[in-house]
Design brief:
By secondary structure, the chain is of the alpha/beta class. The chain contains ten helices and 13 strands. An eight-stranded parallel β-sheet has the order 4-5-6-7-8-9-10-11. A three-stranded antiparallel β-sheet has the order 1-2-3. Strands 12-13 form a two-stranded antiparallel ribbon.
């Protein structure tokens, strides 16, 4: 049996990117129940990729109850529906066999992963306050993507003078804005900029100077999408809701490294259940952005542990 439920997690504060704001995380929780054992996974339907809770629920509900992980890869396309079911099937197998998912996948034992902490898009004054409150963190990710971003970036740097900064423009810049901002990004010690131009309009990146690494997010999906990004991007952001689960994310990581990309592992705003499998993909990644649970005011039972080392691998009581 496969069930789908909707769960809502309130955020600790309003979270804003260039496309809009949210005050809660709406996720779908998938449970696969066989022989008295339940495996579960989570996904976030994302309107940017034409997903809605109803459409994703319909995709999952149409699956045969006995679907295998191998058959799933060709039954559903890359995306959030396949992600939740794939992760639930991994968890089911782990619980049924008494082995951890990393063992089933032939991976080394996972270790804590250093992560970026995301600052929401806001006024320069508010973003400086956010930066000051999080200045102890080693890596801050800044949501930008408007024509008036320089005051925000200057404010964050003033509030967190020692932190390494990465920027997510969420497709919000034009080639002219990116070209104008790039020297200032370098001056302010930015280590990487994520998806500066809209997906589908990013061919210009192959012609522009890239004085600092550029990461593909909305332009990168599963392993099959990566070869077309050569020459335009230096890093690819692998999110399980884009790749379609842990199985495909591990394959995409292998392909990205083969093609010479550095890897970032990111997330939608979700609970610890969504982050748990991503911790396995993030082992050894150049950048990891698995801070979703830190943005929530409440989380799953047995949540992931975060420390100065980063996000720790999940306990079996949570997943895997």
């Amino acid at each position: 049996m496969i069930t789908v439920t909707r769960d809502t997690f309130p955020l600790a504060r309003t979270f804003t990117i260039s496309r809009g704001s949210k005050t809660e995380a709406l996720v779908l929780t998938v449970r696969v129940i066989r022989d008295g054992v339940t495996g579960w996974g989570e996904c976030v339907p994302y309107a940017r990729f034409h997903n809605t809770p109803d459409s994703v629920t319909a995709e999952i509900s149409a699956l045969p109850a006995a679907i295998t992980r191998a058959a799933l890869q060709s039954t559903l396309p890359a995306g959030s529906a396949r992600n939740a079911v794939d992760c639930a099937l991994w968890d089911l197998e782990a619980k049924a066999t008494g082995r951890r998912v990393w063992q089933l996948a032939g991976l080394p034992a996972p270790r804590p992963v250093p992560i970026a902490f995301t600052l929401s898009l806001d006024t320069p004054e508010a973003m400086r306050l956010q930066a000051t409150q999080n200045a102890h963190r080693l890596l801050l990710k800044i949501k930008l993507g408007t024509p008036d971003d320089m005051p925000r970036l200057e404010a964050v740097r003033a509030g967190a003078p020692r932190a390494t900064l990465i920027i997510d423009a969420n497709e919000g810049w034009s080639p002219a804005i990116y070209t104008d901002l790039a020297p200032h990004l370098l001056r302010l010690g930015v280590a990487m900029v994520e998806q500066p131009l809209p997906a589908g309009q990013d061919d210009m990146l192959a012609e522009l100077d890239r004085p600092l690494p550029v990461c593909a997010d909305e332009s990168a999906h599963d392993a099959g999408s990566l070869a077309a990004l050569k020459g335009k991007y230096d890093v690819v952001n692998l999110k399980l809701d884009k790749t379609g689960g842990l199985t495909a994310a591990l394959a995409a990581r292998t392909e990205a490294l083969r093609l010479g990309f550095k890897v970032m592992v990111g997330c939608m705003v979700g609970s610890s259940l969504a982050m748990a499998p991503a911790v396995l993909v993030a082992q050894g990644a150049a950048f990891s952005d698995l801070d979703g649970p830190l943005l929530l005011s409440q989380d799953r039972a047995h949540p992931l542990h975060y420390s100065a080392e980063g996000v720790h691998p999940p306990e079996p009581a949570l997943w895997g």
